[in-house]
């Protein structure tokens, strides 16, 4: 049996359906959670700059990269278990190859959701930064008057 054929059958067959149906990987609530997590990570990384008011928003591409990193981590965690359950005959290397293949497949198929999540992360970030900067200004007024 050809490993490429077997891998393709797994990606597009039972395992792919299981991931979509059982995990509901790209559900709206999951994407909102990822967007909020990405905005919080961005604030944590840039807290000092945000407080100094010299903060520049990240580009869409920068935020998309962060979103993809989060999706990648969540995908690996959830899908690796599904691969192990669905295809117990795969060794570690074959399972890793399958995980990478499935991730590429789902990223390609869900580009619109990824863009929407990136936009949501940027919107959430703007709101959080604006609120944080208001709080910092209020504290400065309170302690410098």
Describe this structure in words.
There is one protein chain. The chain is mostly helical. It has helices spanning 3-12, 14-23, 28-45, 47-51, 60-86, 92-109, 111-144. Helix 1 (3-12) runs parallel beside helix 2 (14-23), helix 3 (28-45) crosses helix 5 and helix 5 (60-86) packs across helix 7. It is elongated, with a radius of gyration of 20 Å. The protein starts with a helix and ends with a helix.
Overview features:
mainly alpha; 145 residues
In short:
The chain has 145 residues and is an all-alpha fold.
> Roughly what is the average pLDDT, rounded to an integer?
80
What kind of sheet is the major sheet?
A: none
Q: Report the uncertain regions.
A: 1-11
Strand residue content: under 5%
Approximate helicity band: over 70%
List the helices and strands and how they pair.
Blueprint: H1 3-12, H2 14-23, H3 28-45, H4 47-51, H5 60-86, H6 92-109, H7 111-144
């Amino acid at each position: 049996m050809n490993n490429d054929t077997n891998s393709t059958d797994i990606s597009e067959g039972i395992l792919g359906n299981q991931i979509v149906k059982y995990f509901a990987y790209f559900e709206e609530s999951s994407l909102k959670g990822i967007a909020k997590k990405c905005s919080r990570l961005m604030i944590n990384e840039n807290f000092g700059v945000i407080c100094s008011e010299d903060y520049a928003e990240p580009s869409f591409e920068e935020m998309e990269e962060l979103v993809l990193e989060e999706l990648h981590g969540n995908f690996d965690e959830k899908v690796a278990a599904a691969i192990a359950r669905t295809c117990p005959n795969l060794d570690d290397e074959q399972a890793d190859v399958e995980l990478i293949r499935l991730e590429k497949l789902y990223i390609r198929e869900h580009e619109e959701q990824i863009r929407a999540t990136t936009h949501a992360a940027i919107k959430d970030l703007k709101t959080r930064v604006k609120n944080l900067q208001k709080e910092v200004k209020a504290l400065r007024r309170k302690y410098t008057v």
